[in-house]
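Good morning C.,

I know you're traveling, so I'll keep this short. The sequence:
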Amino acid sequence: MVGPKNPSEGAVWLVAAALVSGCYSGVDVTAQLPTAGTAGDDGAGDGASGGDDDGGGDDDGGDDGEPSGPDDACGQPDVAVAPLRRMTREQYNNTVAHLLGDTTRPASSFAEDERLGAFASNALATVSVLAVEQYMGAAEDLAAAAVEDLDTLLPCTPETMGEDACATEFIVDFGRRAYRRPLSADEIGRAQALFESGRDGGEFADGIRLVVQGILQSPNFLYHFEYGVDEPGDLVALQPYEVASRLSYFIWGSMPDDALLDAAEAGELATTEELEAQAYRMLADEKAEAAFGSFHRQWLDVHDLETASKDPELFAQWSTELAEAMTTETERFGSHVIRNDDGRMETLLTASYTVANAELAAFYGVAPPTEVDEDGFGIVELDPGERAGVLTQAGWLAGHAHADQTSPVFRGILVREQMLCQPLPTPPDTVDDTPPDIDPNATAKERFEQLLEDEACAGCHIQINPIGFGFEHYDAVGAYREMDGNVAVDAVGELSLTDVDGEFDGAMELGERLSQSTMVAECMAKQWSRFATGRIEQDQDTCAMDDIYARFEESDHNIQELIVGIAGSDMMRLVRKAEQ
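The tokens, ready to paste straight into the viewer:
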């Protein structure tokens, strides 16, 4: 790690040095981890447990008579411990865009986020020296760019108000938005010292630059701190500004706006009604589109599709531009269903349309959109004999395939884990996961039968492959096909261990069946709650999750109502203190 560029930046350098030495990594959340197989229904574990080995949290409920698990009546509120989380790369990019107007997406080059279940949530690992250097470099670049337009950045005019007074007003205003709460007197004083240090070695703009640079490296900017109110008991209400931040990073994937911060200041984020009113307001804002796109991209595991390896001799149509269009389709289709259509889970799984540009429409063999946005995307009607709903979209299908052939295994796992919330164990290291050789005279079902004959594999693959076979009409890049080499596609699959068991023929029929499944609806509620909280639900969350699902069910599985239900729930406004 290199030192500060000049002596006036020594204060910022001290911040970074302190972060590496340990205070940057926050609390030791590994002490809160359950043992494997106890994290709600996701056996991977997730850092969201209350601290006991069985993952059940604070078993005795403390001394305050609070309920401690699913066997208690739901007469009192309860939630599990939430881990301390650091901003994800996407949250960082969104936040600096709304805070500074910077759309360069600097965090895209940061180290990869951790994942809890399907979703990014930096809750476990301490921060590496590389990550600190990346935060420092981004802060320097963002600050330098910001002060190039002081008229836009500042809430005041230094020539009129005076430099010191204007700097203080900026610190108070900028700090409140960056930290998602008002700064303390000590924090204001430290920022003023940074300003003076920078100005003494240069000009007014240098002082402001150093303030921005320091704030963007502060743990108060980079972490979601959730202390709760200073009251006795293990379960306490979050502070109003903490509620505002939880709400905004759930629905917008970014910092609160002034209206939300003002509501926190006025104490208007305390009741279910107040939270739901804010949620409806935020859902109508265009910023919600990015967060909902992020949910669907992560839920369907559509990551880095542009770099996916595909055999160019077999799939000449594959290109970076097509892959980017597929990713955009995943994001915008999900957001469109929620914000512009009827919002129902059934529509998500069975819609006769998608959101595409001309290139993707041609790939699907349908007419291009007639009305498009600034990026060339719009609604297109799909061929009803080939595609309907999210399960037939090329992005996730291409991402869950090999370079030269489909993967019933990858595709079946996604449905089992992400749509049914039925986690599967990690295969033993001794298992050979090489796909079977391509045989133009055998269907994929015939070639993958060997996995059902092997005792070491059959236990899991009997739950996976029969689902994955239903996607065989879509090749390794998601293109529709009737032939698999020299033989007709066999897309007959079978569901088991669900409430809609039985054979189905093709992905569209599977989508219809899953759209009527209570298990899928319950899983959808869990996935959105995980996205909202950055953790996997625990025993103490049972009553809150019951309330959230009841609202979802009563709304005919309207996802917008599910989101509002989560926003107004105990999981959004309460926090359980971790054991020290």
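Safe travels,
E.
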